[in-house]
């Protein structure tokens, strides 16, 4: 069995607020790539719930956070369609993403 790693390094200020976030992905050739935000979700099949880590730096602009959330919503619809084959629900999720874009004033 082959293994690979994706790691995220977070530098915190004295109040434990992220100041710098970098990530590494061996197979992608990514090393110490800076980012201003990350959202990670994992499925706990024992508790039957999603566990999340949402981090962003003090330097993450609100307008970029809105775009980040919008793109995540779009990708959730795509992932849902690939995982379930339910195109109608995936389309509905895309419509929700577009409504978000309008309400958040990014479109």
List the helices and strands and how they pair.
Blueprint: E1 6-12, E2 18-25, E3 30-35, E4 37-44, E5 49-56, H1 62-84, H2 87-103
Antiparallel strand pairs: 1-2, 2-3, 4-5
Helix pairs in contact: 1-2
InterPro entries: Motility-assoc_prot_GldC (IPR019854)
Organism: Chryseobacterium phosphatilyticum
Protein name: Gliding motility protein GldC
Structure, described:
With 107 residues, this protein is of the alpha+beta class. It starts with 5 loop residues before the first strand and ends with a helix. The longest helix has 23 residues, at 62-84. 37% of the residues lie in helices and 35% in strands. It folds into 2 domains: 1-58, no CATH class; 61-106.
Concise overview:
The chain is α+β, with helices and mostly antiparallel strands and 107 residues long. 37% of the residues lie in helices and 35% in strands. The strands form 2 sheets. It has a 3-stranded antiparallel β-sheet, with no helix packed on it.
């Amino acid at each position: 069995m082959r293994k690979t790693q994706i790691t995220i390094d977070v530098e915190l200020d004295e109040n434990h607020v992220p100041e710098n976030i970098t990530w590494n992905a061996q197979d992608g050739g990514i090393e110490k790539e800076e980012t201003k935000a990350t959202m990670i979700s994992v499925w706990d099949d024992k508790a039957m719930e999603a566990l999340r880590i949402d981090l962003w730096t003090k330097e993450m602009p609100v307008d970029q956070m809105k775009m980040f959330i919008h793109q995540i919503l779009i990708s959730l619809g795509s992932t849902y369609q690939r995982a379930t084959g339910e195109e109608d629900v995936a389309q509905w999720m895309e419509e929700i993403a577009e409504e978000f874009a309008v309400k958040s004033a990014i479109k």
